[in-house]
Amino acid sequence: MAEAHQAVAFQFTITPEGIDLQLSYQALNQIYLSGVRSWKKRVSRMRNRVIKGVYPASPSSWLFVAIGILATMYMQSDPSMGLIAKIQQALDSDGLHVSLSTQGQTMVSALVFSTLLWLSLILALRFCLKLLLSYHQWMFEQHGRVSNTTKVWTLLRLLSGRKPLLYSYQTSLPHLPVPAVRDTLTRYLESVRPLLTDLEYKRMTDLANEFESSLGNRLQRYLKLKALWATNYVSDWWEEYIYLRGRGPIMVNSNYYGMDFLYVTPTSVQAARAGNTITALLLYRRMVNREELTPSRVPDVLQHWQDSEFVAVYSRGRYYRLWVYRAGRLLSAREIEHQIQWILDDPSPPLPGEEKLGALTAGDRVPWAQIRKEHFSSGVNKRSLDIIEKAAFFVTLDDEAQGMKGDDPTGNLDRYAKSLLHGKCYDRWFDKSFSIVIYKNGKSGLNAEHSWADAPTVAHLWEYTLATDAFQLGYTEDGHCKGEVERSLPPPHRLSWEIPSEVQDQIFSSLTVAKALADDVDCHVFPFRDFGKGKIKKLRVSPDAFIQISLQLAYFRDRGSFCLTYEASMTRLFREGRTETVRSCSNQSCAFVKALEGGECKRLFRQASEKHQNLYRMAMTGAGIDRHLFCLYVVSKYLGVDSPFLKEVLSEPWCLSTSQTPVQQMELFDLKNHPDFVSLGGGFGPVADDGYGVSYIIVGEDMINFHVSSKHSCGETDSHRFGAQIAKALQDIMAVLSADTPSSSKGPAQPQSKKLL
């Protein structure tokens, strides 16, 4: 227990001669440095609060206002139109005339007026900024045809010219609007028209009309009341009812994954890769805490332990606490590698029940909640569980090798995806915001829990981590982290558990449920290299619309019909915005697919592409369908009333669930000089038992990576077969659009939008 002695700042013993006091100056120095670091963080946070509080102005702008007012008064002019004199009279009434001269009273009054004027200007600027951020018509305009209103809107750049902090825009972002019930119903009926027969469509139309005339407006009034009161009328209910109240396993069903570089593994030393990865993640967290990241209109609210100075590590069935700060400083990557290697070399066996403890987070939620309350709410188990949950993040040192390696690169990529999605069902902590996985051969990846953040937040974090690991931190020639090691570092702390037989029985039951779910997942990952967004954009077509219409064609060929299709869209133009659904299967896309199978379709593709982009813009600007209907359904449940229409809509399966993984920081990757450092992106499990989950990432100009998932238990789906259909659909549509089409073909270029899972 050497580390316990190092934690003691002083010792004393009582002897016949008195008290023998022994001080540990090294420990006291550690305490001092830790306190200094804590106060520096407090000062930094206070500074950031002031800067955000006056944005889009700056704290120094007060000085310019004050000097301007005083200069004007010096020129025998009153810019306050008598207000300074009134402020001076008020100061006189408070008795300040006793301690201040007349000139001093005038000076104080002018400064008070300057401060009030400055605050008024800040509020006016913030109001203007909010109006400008509420304008979304620019998204609907064709390239090269900008309206005068949009030209005026560009004044936004003048108001946000000063570099903002991460959360500077928060108070200026508009609230998500509540669409009219009739508009949402009209858009809904249009979205399901290609999926229903005439009789089915008439029945659904009657249900929608009956809902609008009876219950719809009543529910809408409650929803508008919430929109007036709450920051965002969707996000809190979405988080609670879609994520937190789900009682099924979150593994596969909710959590998603991110992959390493496709062709490159920066080092084959597992401990070294862990050292750089952990360091890069903590550097990113420091940038978040200091608000040094550039905001993307509005960041997701990051809920984390800001001052957590350790990570939780799992290795060969054992759990550890690894301190990553010492004496107020972040350990070097080489020191973290040293600590990780100590864990890997630790010969101690797992405690009874410890090895597969993580299965509790992979199975059904109710048993885990009960076991947690009964056996993890006190004693040694609570202390160890608190360490895992309060850790900055979770790290798994996997004892397998993964990646595109060996003689079967396609099969290996599929196994790599499955490993990140569920692993062994007990070697990830699926409740943690994210778990970093470092494989035996140095390959890495992550598994992220969905409730706290959508994919753009995690993708931004992972992009920074990969780039910092490979290009900033780097490795020595023998594959180790750079830097030196302080040999007095205490070793990682092994967590202790007391797991009785009834808990071990539940671990076995949860693992059985999780393994059945994991074994049923059919994952297929493949890079499409025939062309990428470069060739698509030369046709003046949105790359996302091109891919989405290709997915419609692929599904039609695979299943012989169309289906309700989910594509995730951002609503981060609004405060606390998360996602909305783009219903990609439209009348126009179905007409194109049928025409392509019949031989004539170029004009229809253009219509389908423009329709898809319009649907996406509508979803981004608060005119989506599904979140509005979802919230109306929640209100109906609170009121205790049933709606046959809402019940049917909310139970419709998404047989094709799709998402584009965003690439947000291409400036971090030099693909020209390092073309092999391309990301595989990430993916997720199938949403419907008889459907497909499709994630894709557009990498550079010439590559698109796809992640396809389905279930083995469904005899009508096959991820590899569907992947082949996607590739063929992309090729066929490109052949049609490229036929007799010069690269300078006219037509409006559609802007590419970033997607999220």
Automatic annotation (TrEMBL):
Which SUPFAM superfamilies does its entry note? CoA-dependent acyltransferases (SSF52777)
One GO BP annotation of this record: fatty acid beta-oxidation
What family name appears in the similarity comment?
Belongs to the carnitine/choline acetyltransferase family.
Q: Where is the Carnitine O-palmitoyltransferase N-terminal domain?
A: 1-47
Membrane topology per the entry is: Multi-pass membrane protein
Q: Which GO terms describe its cellular component?
A: membrane; mitochondrion
Where's it found, cell-wise? Membrane
Q: Which PANTHER family match?
A: CARNITINE O-ACYLTRANSFERASE, CARNITINE O-PALMITOYLTRANSFERASE
The alphabetized UniProt keywords are: Acyltransferase, Fatty acid metabolism, Lipid metabolism, Membrane, Transferase, Transmembrane, Transmembrane helix
Where exactly are the transmembrane stretches of this chain?
A: 54-75, 107-129
Q: What is this protein called?
A: Carnitine palmitoyltransferase 1A2b
Q: Which domain of life is it from?
A: Eukaryota
Annotated GO MF terms: carnitine O-palmitoyltransferase activity
Q: Which residues form the active site?
A: H450
Q: Where is the Choline/carnitine acyltransferase domain?
A: 176-727
User: What is the first-listed, main subcellular location in coarse terms?
Assistant: membrane
Q: Name one Pfam family in it.
A: Carn_acyltransf
